[in-house]
Amino acid sequence: MGQTLRVTVNGEARSDEVEPRLLLVHYLRETCGLTGTHVGCDTSQCGACTVLLDGAAVKSCNMLALQADGAEITTIEGLAPEGGLHPLQTAFWENHGLQCGYCTPGFIMAAAALLAENHDPSDEEIGRGLEGNLCRCTGYVNIRKAVKAAAQAMREGAAAPIGG
Amino acid sequence: MIPAAFQYSKAGSVREAVAQLREAGPEAKVIAGGQSLIPLLRLRLSQPSHLVDVNGVRELDYVHPEGDHLRVGAMTRHSTLARSELVQRHLPLLAEMAAQVGDPQIRARGTLGGVFAHADAAGDYPTLAVMLDATIVTDRRRVAARDFFQHLFTTALAEDELVCEVVFPMAPGPHRYIKFRRRLYDWAIVGAAVQKMDSGWRVGLTHVGPTAVRAAAVESRLQAGASFTEAASAAADGLEPPSDVRASADYRRHLAQVLTRRALEQAA
Asked: Which of A78, A110, A137 is the last residue of a domain?
């Protein structure tokens, strides 16, 4: 009983037969093999499954895959060119914006949506912008530092280091 | 958690949506933003036979000022309402509420019409609609907000009826919505909304009963010249709030009074 889903994932146009009840997060992880998008809470609260849908941060556990028909999706794997790191990824690394790392892809995708709209967010704006994401390890201080550092790097147009 | 199986179809217009609902029968449901429905599907608390997806009904995504009213299309998303200059100019309390729904990811998907059709006791917009005497426009009729919300998750909508628009009176004057919650993205444990109109104050309460409540006792005390503190002490009159894991009924009565007073003080 599959229906056809046509969607662009990280720049690649795809067409897959999917069941209506398939959630976007399971499509990304199981059909596309993009396991960087995590399932955290399964109750649409934690934000670990955040991806960009036509540029807006959304929780991919809270959408049917078929609802993404015709859309462009960016996951953590597609944020930077192959082998490189996005300034947010570099900044989370350098500022130790993670401990266990499970929530990190979601934080980075939510932060990417925030920085696309606001190039120089205040601490409070970062807090508001990331209120849909939970981290149970870091206490958020280093996450905020990382987002500020990434914003600065992006404003200065620093190129992402390739190859690490 | 995986939802139970269902059929799925997309509607491109109001007419198509209603036809698909009718065709699919009484166990069919509409899916708009899905931010409340999908968690219910995953928990299998809801097991519709068929979902009619109205995200493609772009004709319902608008904010139109008309005379002294603001018409808002059902498919307008929270993030759009929060940013809309028209909403900020003509009914800033709606923009203030929209900016406090869920979190950014939820606001990017959730819709005005979805909130009305879902009718959660903790929904924010129903409070505004009830206190301002808004009108809900469906594919076939107009229903006053006070008649639309009947009980928990229960509205006047027929099984094949679609919310198309909500018509609010314009209200650019002093206003405030205070939503008491333990975590930013959470539902209101209790919420209090106040709006100064030409005719006097309107006061509404969220999550103090199965549906949104207009605090008429507070309004009439204000009309009679009572202080904000005196007037707000009537906010719990006649309420029978729920007791749940978040708050007891007594605590909700207390919050109704405190939040109403604060909202009046902050709005004035």
From this structure: A78
Q: For the complex shown, is ipTM > 0.85?
A: yes
* Residue A163 forms part of a structural domain: no
Whole-number Å distance between alpha carbons of A36 and A24: 13
Among chain B residues, the shortest Cα distance to A20 is held by B8
Is residue A162 domain-resident? Answer: no
pLDDT > 70? residue A164: no
List chain A residues with CB under 8 Å of B103: 47, 131-133
Q: What gap in Å lies between CA B116 and CA B262, rounded to an integer?
A: 26
Inter-chain contact A64–B38, Cβ cutoff 8 Å?
yes
CB atoms within 10 A of CB B230: 14
pLDDT the model gives residue A139:
82
Q: Which residue has the tokens 């800033």?
A: B92
CA–CA distance, A54 with B77 (Å, rounded to integer)? 15
pLDDT at A123 over 70: yes
Residues A72 and A13 in one domain: yes
CB-based contact (8 Å) between A64 and chain B? yes
Same-domain status, A22 and A43: yes
Q: Is residue A159 pLDDT above 70, yes or no?
A: no
Size of interface A-B (CB pairs under 8 A): 87
Mean pLDDT to the nearest integer, B154-178: 98
Q: Is residue A131 included in any domain, yes or no?
A: yes
Contacts of A129 in chain B (CB under 8 A): 104
Q: Which residues are CB-neighbours of B44 under 8 A, at least 6 positions away?
A: B1, B3, B4
CB A17 within 8 A of CB A3: yes
Half-sphere exposure of A158 (CA within 13 A, CB side): 17
Inter-chain contact B8–A58, Cβ cutoff 8 Å?
Answer: no
| Range of weakest confidence among A53-67, A148-162, B6-20, B194-208 | A148-162
Nearest CA in chain A to B44: A21
- A68 within some domain: yes
Domain housing A61: 3-78
